[in-house]
Amino acid sequence: MVLEYQSGFGNDFETEAVLGALPQGQNSPQNCAFGLYAEQLSGSAFTAPRGQNERSWLYRIRPSVLHTNRFEQFDVALWQSAPHSRSSALPLGQYRWDPIPAAAPNTTFVDGVNTMTTAGDVQTQTGMAAHIYDFNTNDADTYFCNADGEMLFVPQQGDLRLFTELGCLLVSPGDIAVVPRGMIFRADCMGDTARGYLCENYGAPLTLPERGPIGANCLANPRDFKTPVAAFEDKEVDCHVIYKWSGEFHRTLIDHSPLDVVAWHGNYAPYKYDLSTFSPVGAIAFDHPDPSIFTVLTSPTEQDGTANIDFVIFPPRWMVAENTFRPPWYHRNIMSEFMGLIKGAYDAKEKGFVPGGASLHNQMLPHGPDAFGFNKASTDTLGPVKLDNTLAFMFETRYAQKVTQYASQLTGLQDDYIDCWRDLKRRFPKQD
Fold it and tell me: What average pLDDT score do residues 263-273 get?
C-alpha cells in the first residue's frame, strides 16, 4: 500500500480511494455511488460553534451499526483508566523509571499498553492517562475503538502503522500521531517490535496553542500536519472489534473488516506530525523562558490558559542567553508533568534519565536540575551552544497524576531518584 497524505491541521478535507465515490453537493444522497452507505462521525456536539465543530462524512461498504454485534466484556490487565481502582501504595513523591521490561513474545497492541499514571475521571471526560506501549505481534483481524478519548502516540523504538477508518499513518520515532475519539483503527508494528509513549486524552480535543505575541510563525505550523488519504480494506472474514468505553473493554465478532470507508470528507480525522518541523523560540538576550514556549498541542479547559493536557517537547535548539542559568529552574507549579525521553540526553538530567524511561513530577512538588546539572550550568563559560541529538517531551495536565500499581512495582522504579538533589549544598552566605 502506498501511503499518501494531505497537509493541514483542522482542514475540511475530501478524499476518495475510488474515483467517483465522493458525492458532490449533497452529504447524504438518496443513493450513494457504488452502493455505499453515508455515515457521519461527530467528534463534537452538533451545536458546537463552527470553529470547534468536528465531523466527517464517511462513504463505506457497510454502515458501522454492523460493527456492533453482541458484545462481551473482558479484562485488559495493564490498561487502566482514571480513577483507577488498583492505585499504588507509593507515598507522595517525585518518581523516575528506567525503560519498562520488553514485552513477552506474541504480545499484541492492546495487551501491550501499560498504564503508568492516570488523572481526572474518564466518566466526566476530564484528565488523561499516560501509558507506555510495547508490542511485537500483529493481529490482522482485530481492531480497536476508544470511546473514552483521543490517543496521542509518541514512538520511541520501531515504526508503527495506524490503519484507521480514514486511511493509514506510518509513524516513526521522532513523529507523533493522533487518532480521534471513537475512530476504529488497527495498530501494527512494522519491525520486530514497536515501543513508545501513549497519552489517552479524556478531555477536549488536542489543538494548536495560540501564539500570542509570537505572531503568525514558529512553533508548530498547520501545513506540517499530515492527514491520510482514503484507503480501505474489503475483506469478508471473522474480525474482532474491541471497544474501550467508560474504562471498560468490550469486544464483538463481525464478518468483515470495519476499515471499509471508500471516501470521506470533513475535519474529524487522524493526523501525524514530524517533530523536527517544530520551530522553537527562546531567549536571545537573558532569562530562561517558561517551558510553555515548546507546546506542540494543547487540550484546553474552561479556564483560559490552564490545559487539560499540554504536549510539550524539548527538541534540538540553540542556547544563547547571557548571564543566565540555562536549564529549567527549580520550581513548583499547578501542572503535573509526566516526562519521557525519545533519544539523547536531557540537559537538566544528563544522568539516570535514559531513552525509553519516564519521570513524574506532580503538582506543587518541587523539581528541577540535579546537582550535577546545577553545578555544570553554574560554572559553564556561556556562549552559543547547540543542544543536539536530544528529544524529550512532557504530558502536562492540570490534574494530579496517580501512579498505577503496575508502575509502582516495576523493577525500573529508581528508588534513589530523589538523591539526585542530595548534593545541592547550602551556599549562603557566600564566601569570597
Answer: 98
